[in-house]
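Example 3.
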Amino acid sequence: MQSELYLLNCWYGLAWSTELDDGALLARKVLGNSLVVFRDKEGRPAALRDRCSHRMAPLSMGKLKDGVVECAYHGMQYDGSGRCVHYPFGPVPARAVVEHYAVVERDKMIWIWPGNPELADSSLIPDYHFHNNDDAEDDWVVFGYTNVKADYRLEIDNLMDLSHAEYLHATSFGGRGFITNHGRYQVRDLGNEIHSNWWMPAIDLVHPGTRQPIGVQADHFLDMRWNAPSNMRLQVGFLPQGVHADREDAPRDDLPGQFSAHIITPEDEGSCHYFWSADRPKGSVGFVGGMDKEMGRKIFKVAFEIEDKPMLEAVAANMHKGFWEEKPLILPNDVGGIRARRRLAKLIREEQEPAGAEAVSSEALIQMTPSIS
Amino acid sequence: MQSELYLLNCWYGLAWSTELDDGALLARKVLGNSLVVFRDKEGRPAALRDRCSHRMAPLSMGKLKDGVVECAYHGMQYDGSGRCVHYPFGPVPARAVVEHYAVVERDKMIWIWPGNPELADSSLIPDYHFHNNDDAEDDWVVFGYTNVKADYRLEIDNLMDLSHAEYLHATSFGGRGFITNHGRYQVRDLGNEIHSNWWMPAIDLVHPGTRQPIGVQADHFLDMRWNAPSNMRLQVGFLPQGVHADREDAPRDDLPGQFSAHIITPEDEGSCHYFWSADRPKGSVGFVGGMDKEMGRKIFKVAFEIEDKPMLEAVAANMHKGFWEEKPLILPNDVGGIRARRRLAKLIREEQEPAGAEAVSSEALIQMTPSIS
Amino acid sequence: MQSELYLLNCWYGLAWSTELDDGALLARKVLGNSLVVFRDKEGRPAALRDRCSHRMAPLSMGKLKDGVVECAYHGMQYDGSGRCVHYPFGPVPARAVVEHYAVVERDKMIWIWPGNPELADSSLIPDYHFHNNDDAEDDWVVFGYTNVKADYRLEIDNLMDLSHAEYLHATSFGGRGFITNHGRYQVRDLGNEIHSNWWMPAIDLVHPGTRQPIGVQADHFLDMRWNAPSNMRLQVGFLPQGVHADREDAPRDDLPGQFSAHIITPEDEGSCHYFWSADRPKGSVGFVGGMDKEMGRKIFKVAFEIEDKPMLEAVAANMHKGFWEEKPLILPNDVGGIRARRRLAKLIREEQEPAGAEAVSSEALIQMTPSIS
């Protein structure tokens, strides 16, 4: 794959593991390339260019037979490496080969490395081990997928500034004034990993149904982790008030909370795949932990499909130039998102101009309020 | 706003006054620009660019709160001048301003001046005072809106040659042979105002239901007034036969008739807004005046949406070059429309090349049958 | 008409004769040109540019009155030669003429010659005389039409390699292994006519319902005839086993069989008209001939609309460059289709560069398995 828009030597989410169950031949476009994804004879994930070498038929229109893809047009069969293993009307033609991609299965996700396969190091995949707790006692995980007709970086921006929950998610997650009235914004910059966090001490917990205070205070936090290019994880915590006050400026992912994945993969210029998940909320404060799996699935689906998606698509439709050319107003809460955006741009530049041409980008000239991290 | 397609320093219809009732945040694109239209605290109309200064969210997705627009994304609020008056997560940022436009409310219409606001002179708005008679005793006015996927000048052309009523409107307004058999075409050219009229003496009135003659003759006229760029008014009259014969070549708008507005505003290249209205037919000849308000609304809607709109959109889809490059056949009845088209082109040229470069346009070379005005 | 994509001095199918019954004004785009097709006063087919000379209205929106087309906009009337014969509001304008095309009716099809009408020689139309047997005793013909959003040459390729019937048509015509297990592929190249045939000796006939062998053997053949640019005819035969063994390498269209037309006409770049027909299967082997007319219509419709069309449209959507630039794998069964493709490209080149510039095309360099014809 080649592109001036995307980082190539890195891991992107390609499909949830469950999408390949039941012998599926999954058609999915990533970074502008149409792929067919399936499990081979040994159950390992495979991704091929979705195009038969003979007559350009999409292989995803065919059948998966014992881990081999059979083209629906003239019956040519390919294994997981893209090699033709059967041609019904004569010997297997030597040139009948379809391009294949490096893929790895980890934490319930099929990951793809679109760049040089020799550089594909699976230890670089960010940690989402909570995904493996779906079958654990007293826990559950929901997995979801939403297609968004917007540049993938708008989805990253959205998630890196969760203050929008007070307005856009007023009927699902937010609108309770926790961020507005108590929020302290924090950015922790670790290079290709950036944390964009809110610490909200001494909030008054409210009843999830009536939204009335229940007479209990808590220290609340929203910790968003971004790993380049576009793999994110959120931890939502409610702590007994004052008990962990020393953690205001320290990592908190050893504390109980609800983890959720937000894995964004460019589909094409102007659209992206949004893979999201969430486990059972944990903690011993007020009602936390009382949400059941179906309620969890529903509230996330509402938030991401009914609230975020139309807004991101409207923003994308409202942009007629590049992000910086549109001259957005950069506010203090945008620091995490802006840093991620610039880091990603720098990585793409370095990948495409490896000789280290360090020209100052126009981005460096945009005025930005400094972070409080 | 800047454009090579449109006259900017002039008034266009933006919305009917009633479209802003009930606290509406109206999204409307004019001349290629997306706007949000609403009433401010004092009830005055306001038009802003439909894009929050922060993250490009369409403001029309938000809420109108006491005459102030609140963005649905992060809660930023703007007043009718486009100034940010509230930001929930910190002080109001100085650069948080949204572009606003000069608008005026007159005769039940919100008018917009897309050019230099210092030149916006509301005395230049053409007269549609009959719109104010909707509540008057023995009168009514219907207001309608139709979106047409065609260049706005095709809609002007259509209205400036009403001979099409005999064919395209055979099942609504026309098809009775009044123009075909009795019509005398007249053009009165007053510069940026052009009248394209039909005088039809001694027609046999027909029953509106049976379409059979009722034994009464009348002098009938259709007087269409165009004001640059695209604001039109039609008067339809039925006079007792012979009584006003001296008015064949004179203005007739002091005589009784039915007035209707035809206000055309470019939405974008290739589409336009068609705001139409009509009051109760007046006069003492035959059945004239017997039409009730709901029948009036229905017949106009049929004529403009079911008859005109598909034809204009089909013509637009049939054009692969500019109007003149398509080499249309110019006939005597086209004189009014062609004059309006040329006048408008001249005004746009003059606005864009104010140094008065008087190059002869290729339009001047098109052969045209002279008018009988 | 002018185009770099199409051969112009040749016959294309424009409409089935039955499409002009009942006074139809048929709108059809061919080779990128919008036409209106109708029968004139004498019942002869006529094809005009679908655009009134006055205001560019599609004439197909109008009415056919005694073999004359009346424009729906202002009532201008045109005869089959494109000459204006009536204008309701004045004398017929001399310049009111619409472009007309050379058309001929033959074998239930209206044929169009888009190039120089002086070269239009109706003796060049390929033979489809079986179409005239629809009313014959013990015979029937079904006529169908399918619009395909794919380059017309992909439809030709599809028909010239019927091995796809074993996979793509497994639930309609094929999937019985006749080609896979018994097929001998033959190409007969007659210049601008190419035959792409399968001879399948000693197949075991199966019951059409149960698909189980019935204990009868037959010699089966599929003979596809292509005439430049894109007019094809298929003969499907089942012969008593061994009786006509001498015909394996000889023409067979004097033998009984089912004939079907496959007439492909470019609509526009990226879409085509597929006119198909079929008569009653003939022969005395097993169940052959038992298919009734409605079953014939149904099975063809399924095969061409439900099976072929989605595949061809998916292939077209999967192509981002020209056919040869996509580097398809050319296999032995593709010989007929590749020869037709090259012949057609050569004819287009010769038509457009008549001085005989015989530059070697890049096509000539593509490696191709030789035919066994």
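Residues 50 and 56 of chain A are 8 Å apart (CA to CA). DSSP finds four helices and 17 strands in chain A.
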